[in-house]
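[job 4417] fold queue: 2 targets
>>> target A
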Amino acid sequence: MNTVYFRYEVLRLFRNRQNFIFSLIFPIVLYLVIAGQNKNQHIGGLPFPTYYMTGMITFGGLGAVIGGGARIAFERDLGWTRQLRISPLSTASYLRTKVATSYLMAAITISLLYIAGISLGVRMPLQRWIEMTGLILIGLIPFVALGIMLGHLIKSDSMGPVMGGGMSFLSIFGGAFGQFGADGSVLNKITQAIPSYWIVRAGQTALGGRAWGTTGWLVIAVWSVLLTYGAVWAYRRDTGRP
């Protein structure tokens, strides 16, 4: 990773106030209001604050990593990607930096929602916190790639509607705001093919069982491979790099 370029990207990230409000403040406020009112309820075998914490992490995490695509689209409109094309920056360094900054934003979102969850009584052994965090970070891989791909395919003035609609679809059907479809129903089984379902499912580690079985790992792996390929293809298509 090119450290100079990475520092530049981090500075741009923290200067984007709109991104911070949407990716950080909104999910936290939504979580505190809704989970606070339902902290004695249960859903999917979990206390509501625990379930909804992973739901809001899914929503906020998607905003954080897919939001990287909006920054890319803006760079394209400004001609910044054309400047990078003639620089010594390699494709690998460029993509690694975009992935790292997306994960940095997601890590801040996750950390703040953990603090909010603890304030509402979410409790579990340290090992389960670590396991849940690992699953969430792995579950975000396909969405990081999706953000990069969209950023190189869609213009900045179209990214807002695409991001808003896409995040809403992925969050709702993934169960971020409550289980979508009854257990065992056809609709519920269909939602299990969406990676966001498994990020929400990571909260099941609080029960001491396995959050992901073979299906979960397979879904994340397949989408990660497909969207990573799509991200690399979109970047090369946009910049004309081999």
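>>> target B
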Amino acid sequence: MIVMIPEKGKPILWEEMTWMEVEQFVKKMDMAILPTAATEQHGPHLPLAVDTIDCYEVAKRISARLGIPVLPPICYGCSQSHGDFPGTISLRPETVTRTICEIAEWLHKAGIRRLLILNGHMWNWGPIYSARENIRYDYRDMQVRVLNWWETTEKTMKKLVDDCSEQPMYLHANIAETSCMLAIRPDLVSMDKAVDDACYTTFFEHRMDQYTKTGIAGGAATKSTKEYGEELLSEVVDQLVEKIKKGLTEEPANKDRKS
């Protein structure tokens, strides 16, 4: 039987393998990356697919470095908070949770025992962590980790939230997201439509259409550059790779292990 040998330095995409290749591949690599993202408005200058494109790109770069297969991204997330901006497509939180759990079920059948859920959309947190709890209960031999792709060092995270560091929940379509898109898909960015919409802090968490007319929050979008985007992506991937390496060799927790 001829089995695909992944080309060094290129991402391994789950959907491009045959079932026979998966069967052989998981014997040596039992970890997979599931990107979770969204289809939602990102201001007048960015496409609806920003979260999916950014998260998938980071996942593929990690795959190219570590040889971990990347699953097709979940392109719909919990985006109800955007309100009435046209174009946004949202799933209910319980739907996102169930989708992830059912994907995990089939991954477990295929032999995957380590699952990294790489998140690309802030408001997916609730349903994703709920899915994690179900997975940990249903599959005692599966190790699972939820990691936001921007969850790296404090220095890099500060760059990503720029002038909105006091209230990162209002980070959206700002200089960081715009710059990353310029580095990945510049053809989808309309910089002539970018505006610098100021951010501010609130006690309650409001819908996007309640506090911004443009859909932008975080400011400085007009200062975005391809170079800054590549700098951010490179930093993030370098830092995530070092974290994820540990997961490739970490043994499952053992209740009999001595402290």
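[job 4417] complete. Note on B: The two ends are 46 Å apart (CA to CA).
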